[in-house]
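As described in the Methods, two query proteins were run sequentially through the folding procedure within a single session, without resetting any intermediate state between them. The first query and its resulting structure tokens are shown here.
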Amino acid sequence: VKFHDIIDHLKMAGMGTLEAQKGRFGAFTDLVYLNVGGTKTRTRDGTIDGVPLPAGVTANAGLDVKNWIWTLAGSYRVQATQDSDFDVLAGARMLTIEPRLTWNFNVDVGPFTGPSRVGGHTVKETNWDGIIGVKGRARFGPNREWFIPYYLDAGTGNSDFTWQIAGGIGYAFPWGELIATWRYLDYKFKSDSKLEDLTVNGPVFGAAFRW
């Protein structure tokens, strides 16, 4: 799904991160929610199980996809200097994805034995995967107020393989930070899964508060 299609059909989205650090040990949790959907109406070129719709039939179809992506991990700070921090991490990521397809035909579509005139179907998949990775930041500027945050992880479990990468630029204030990054998350599911693959990819703009 292209980024502009996500924006055009976005119903609701949210993302938040909470991180704690004491000495060299740390922990963080990250939560992403995404709800997108759209509808389509066709009076020709539509098919049911590969069979063209009868003449005069109008098909209305809607697709909604809800996603929850939750990451929980612990970290250890390998390097901590004025110019950079570098952490290794290990934890788990949960993915819940729920696509729902609804349909409505303006007339009965017999002799088809598949869908009824009005109906819906939902497929729900929940995956847990273990992950390992690295994260950190490189600082620059007269007072080290500018920084480049980066993150990389990879793992497997219920999924065949999943990996995530993020990077960007930020500016530190006394109260916290403003950050702009690009985030890419990819899933490859196992052959017996109801789903084949999933990619979440796009820009992130946010504020971080310290206390």
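Immediately afterward, the second query was submitted; its sequence and tokens are:
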Amino acid sequence: RGPAVICLDLSGSMAGAKGIWAKAVALVLADLARRDGRTATVITFSSGAASVRRHDIVPDRRGHTRKPLDRPALLGFAQTPVGGGTDFVAPLWKAREVIENSRKHRRADIVLVTDGEAHVSPEQLEEFSGFKAETDTRCLGVLVDVAGHERGTVDALCEEVVSVKALKVGEVRGIA
């Protein structure tokens, strides 16, 4: 129920409907956090044109007012290109940096929205697990259209993994 850092896969395999669904999932999660007065940051990633970009689309909350999503940041997020390969290490280490370097992101959960598999070395998995344990961080996976894809790395990184195809309205609030 704390802050959220949403890592969104925008690799080439996410082109078309999968990319639209994945961005929609990220926006819904960020908006649910905003409605609850929580901080949310979206990190888009691929190994190509989109690289790793941070989008703070949920503005800081002052007092008890829940501000709307940040429109310029939201537009930048929506226009982030799709392309390249899938690399989980760069966005997860960026999420780690956000959590470790920001008071408003303490005890944040990481949500990995992707359609597939990417290699993460056993050493990197161990380091990421250590980071999660030290910071009381959970990593949740949301798989978008994963027919025929391996999900072993996502399962190894995340405590819980759900599929967009099987996602029900009540479960979305449980992830956020």
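The first helix runs from residue 17 to 35. We note this only descriptively and draw no conclusion about the first query from it.
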